[in-house]
Amino acid sequence: NEPSERTVEAERTVCPFCGVGCTIEYAGNETTTGVEGPVNTRGEICPKGAAAFDVVTHDDRLTEPLVRHNGRFVTAPWEEALNRVAERLGRIRDDHGADAIQFFASSNCTNEENYVFQKIARVLGTNNVDNCARLCHSSTVAAMGERLGAGAMTNTLDDLSETDCLFVNGANPAEQHPVAFRSYLLPAIRDGASLIHVDPRANDTTEAADVHLPLEPGTDIEVANAIANVLLEEELVDDAFLAERVTGVDAFREHLASVDVEANARAAGVDPEAIREAARLFGEADRGAVITGMGTSQHRCGTDNVHALLNLALLTGNIGRRGTGVNPLRGQNNVQGASDVGALPGVLPGYEPVTDPDARARVADEWGVEPPAEPGLTEVTATHRFGEDVHGAVVFGENPAVTEPNATAVASAFDELDFCVVIDLFETETAAHADVVLPASSWAEKAGTVTNTDRRVMRMRPNATLPGNARRDLDILTAIGRRLTDVPEEFEYDGPEAVFEELTRVAPIYAGMSYDGIGDGYQRWPFPVDAEAGTDVLHTETFATGERTAPLSAVDPTPPADTLDTGELTLTTGRVLQHFNSGALTRRSDRLMAMRGEDVLQIHPDDADDRGIEDGDTVSVANERGEVTVTADVTTAVRRGVVFCTFHYAEPLVNTLAGDALDPVAEIPEYKHSAVRVEPVAPP
Ligand code: SF4
After folding, report:
1. Does residue 274 share a domain with residue 242?
2. Does ligand 1 have an atom closer than 6 angstroms to the CB of 15?
3. Which of 48, 125, 230, 373 could link 17 by a cystine bridge, Cβ 3.0 to 4.6 Å?
């Protein structure tokens, strides 16, 4: 356990902060720089990428395993900590069954690590493994998987630069995916493409928009159905595509006949003429691309919201060609990959359903153990059952005490567990509730692959050695697998490349890939064995379902779970340029904190006036689930009746205000609509 001296060298790797996947390397003086890569072809990066090394060298880094004794953490040798993890989790499995343990995978870690992580769970006998895709785009994946057969971007960032119309629904790529916006979307706009922005809040993306539809949070279906109605009424649909590639057209027309554009516009709080203008721009474009984000997906009707957007793409023939498609922009750097490799409760690596006996048999051929046939618990549902039938948790690079809805209740629920181990860089808010905390490796200290938002698998390479006695994540996970499961030999790997080779044998969409083939570039899935290259544009001749056609699907609005009492406002949440998810990483960067050190609550001037709130006042934002205090930013960027805050800060812990309502299909929480009371806080 003697730590070696730390060294740093420049190796090209992938930025850890968003799904765009820019290539970066260490640049000396504890900074990173962008280098020409497959996505950032001119080496451009955003402020988060430039600050990526700040978390690597941060003083808060854990350097020794921590084990709880008499309520307090003490440092412990690795052997003791790992043995305790295996012994305590093993006891839970023996007493209650493997389904009494929940595995939280990490969308911020590599494909190889997530593959091994889900393998531990499944070899142990449970499908209770999930990653934060549950919280961001599980509804998107569910809808697109059902209708098209693949729950990922249908197109590539490169070909979106050829689009004629961008329909951006519930996303803010100018701030959340800045290099993609500047390198691919903005050039299309400069070439004459129009931009329709459907978002309750005006933000940097809106500045480039031709039409802004500032809808009431939770009315995406009203807007999309009204647009579909105009497309049909004004004959802006693609009849040839409908005849050849789409089913359910007559039933859909019949359903849409009852949609009243004026009524839907009123319900959504937008101008009906703006809806018509948006429909005409999208319907008349030769190539129209839908881009969708968490503003669409994070509702209790998130799956239906995406169905409504898929209808627009199918009606106008905007699938299967360059510059078109339905394109979810993924948040974390490897949220796509964590899902691809099976860190989800219902699917094995490569999205093969756990209920499919042939898929289980293929996995069993490789592992020597057949995964269970019953889908496991999603991470949100599991937290609701802590202390009931879930007694143990393995939390790998996630921070659910901050990221789950009703977060304060979730944090307390962790204390109901018999045992919890957290594997992380820092003593996170979740680690505070753990029994053992294992010091892990940052992005700069490990090798492996990640899969970006447009299905590109790229290689990460170490830029730095580990601090103190921290260990590489893959070494930690394989050590747990060897101790905890009955097949220790299944966790003997000669490095990440050996794991990737196994992954290609288990996940058909990765079958033809290799480290050599990826090199300094990328390979894109689906990449079948013996194929010369991956597939850029999906669904060109047939859909990924194997069918030539995909169905239209009529969906009706579902009101948000929280109803507003008199005087209450709708809280909706989102991200800003400088921070990343729970902020566990970016809040530890002095330079990012210097740019945006605290959260603010955006509130419309009329709502502020009604409450006697002035710009810069401290306000209380509260509902029955909790209360936070935050500084008011009085602005017309938000519509009247809506307030906006980010979810990047542990203080204010905004997710504590989000409710427990879940989408019935994907179990994604309704982060985007919470009823709150907003009041000024009297100065002391
Ligand atoms: Fe990193 Fe995303 Fe910024 Fe690129 S756009 S530098 S991947 S945070």
Report:
1. yes
2. yes
3. 48
CA atoms within 13 A on the CB side of 42: 7
Check pocket membership of 17 for ligand 1, CB cut-off 6 A.
yes
Indicate which residue's Cα is closest to atom 1 of ligand 1: 49
Q: Same domain, yes or no, for 174 and 301?
A: yes
Whether residue 596 sits in one domain with residue 634? yes
* Max CA distance (Å), the chain: 73
Q: Could you tell me the residue range of the domain that residue 585 belongs to?
A: 569-680
Please tell me which residue, 108 or 651, carries the higher pLDDT value. Answer: 108
Other CB atoms within a 10 A radius of the CB of residue 207 amount to: 11
CB-CB contact of 370 with 490 (8 Å): no
Q: Is 123 in the pocket of ligand 1 (CB under 6 A)?
A: no
Q: How confident is the model at residue 664 (pLDDT cuts 50, 70, 90)?
A: very high
Spacing, Cα 582 to ligand 1 middle (Å): 16
Percent pLDDT > 90 in the chain is 86
Residues 255, 397: one domain?
Answer: no
Ligand 1 contact via 184 beta carbon (within 6 Å) = no
Query: Does 337 share its domain with 324?
Result: no
- Which residue among 45, 334, 577 is best mutated to probe the pocket of ligand 1, counting the most ligand atoms within 8 A of its Cβ? 45
Same domain, 359 and 258: no
Residue 557 is encoded by which pair of tokens?
Answer: 């609005």
Structurally, the chain folds into a number of domains equal to 3
**What is the pLDDT of the chain when averaged over all its residues?**
94
**pLDDT grade for 3, boundaries at 50, 70 and 90:** very low
161, 263: one domain? yes
21 occurs within a structural domain: no
**CATH assignment of the domain containing 398:** 3.40.50.740
503/366 Cα distance (integer angstroms): 10
SS (H, E, C) 499-534: HHHHHHHHCHHHCCCCHHHHCCCCEECCCCCCCCCC
Atom number, ligand 1, closest to the C-alpha of residue 44: 6
174 Cβ inside 6 Å of ligand 1: no
Which atom of ligand 1 is nearest to 18's Cα? 2
pLDDT digits (tens, 9 = 90+) for 378-418: 999 999 999 999 999 999 999 999 888 888 899 999 999 99
The two three-digit tokens of residue 507, written as one number: 């996940």
Q: 648, 647, 645: which is closest to 588 by C-alpha?
A: 648
CATH of the domain at 655: 2.40.40.20
Q: Could you read off the pLDDT of 146-185 as tens digits, one per residue?
A: 999 999 999 999 999 999 999 999 999 999 999 999 999 9
What's residue 517's pLDDT? 96
Q: Which atom of ligand 1 lies nearest, measured to the CA of 24?
A: 6
Pick the residue whose CA is nearest to atom 5 on ligand 1. 179
